[in-house]
Amino acid sequence: MNMRLMPLISAALALSISGPVFAQEWIEFASREDRFTCNFPVQPTITQTTYRSERGADLPARVYRAAQGQSRYSVTVVDYTQVQRILTEKAKSCPAGAEPCLGSPGDEGHWKADLRGAIVFATWQMMKRDTKVTSFVWNFVDLVEGHQLQLTNADKSRTFAGIYMHENKLYFIEGTVPPGYPEPGLFQQSLGWLDENGVGLRYQTYYSNGYPTPARVVRGPRTQGQGRIDAPGVPDPGVR
Which residues pair with 216 in a beta bridge? Predict the structure, then answer.
């Protein structure tokens, strides 16, 4: 064999070996509290924050973040279950006759519109960044509907994002990679939902937040690592 080819062959072998090993470093993270699963390159950090809704409700939120080199990944979960209480209370301090602030009986502070328009408002906020939108489509994850965007940022990095709403919680999933990197498909496609028992959840028809909840898919025997939270001594109840 030509010895000058040896370094090239060694490099090729190293790449072929390191590819699968690199992929195996990703972990399947699950949050029973926020009822979602997602693949991250490392265990994400969790930060408590607040999110201001379109109608001015300051809502509790959590941000799950992880990084790998220059690539950044995050899932933000905003709790809209409190929006009625917050905006109803806020409406009490509105000036007399200020309908845009007051709302109407049963819709004080326009909390219903705030809840219904949460995905659209969040999408618009993302589109207003210093970025160029290269794709904007309707999408779904396990039949939970939402929006999916692709953005080219000012520094030429690219962000692939999804915005969904499930059980009155708003989910932003964002993967940002440097120029020339492949899109973060492993991250983007790994989002999933958990039921009240921490088991992977999928619907039989499209789920639209605020409308009657469709029937769930009945799960059969599961395989290791699919959409669940492991707990010692707890049998594995179903598959994602």
Answer: 203
Q: Is residue 105 part of a domain?
A: no
Q: pLDDT tens, 159-183?
A: 999 999 999 999 999 999 999 999 8
Return the CATH number at 192.
3.40.1000.10
Give the contacts of 55 (CB within 8 A, at least 6 positions apart). Answer: 87, 109, 110, 111, 113, 114
CA 106 to centroid of chain Cα atoms: 30
pTM score above 0.85:
no
Whether 63 is covered by a domain: the verdict is: yes
CA separation for the pair 196, 219 (Å, rounded)? 14
Number of domains in the chain: 1
Q: Which residue has the tokens 């598959």?
A: 239
pLDDT at residue 59 above 80?
yes
Instruction: With respect to residue 141, please indicate whether it lies within any of the assigned structural domains.
Output: yes
Residues 39 and 190: beta-carbon distance below 8 Å: yes
In contact, 236 and 222? CB cutoff 8 Å = yes
Contact of 136 with 149, CB cutoff 8 Å: yes
| Domain region containing 176 | 25-81+116-201
d(CA 162, CA 139): 8
The answer to the question of residue 48 being in a domain is yes
How far apart CA 183 and CA 189 sit, in angstroms, is 11
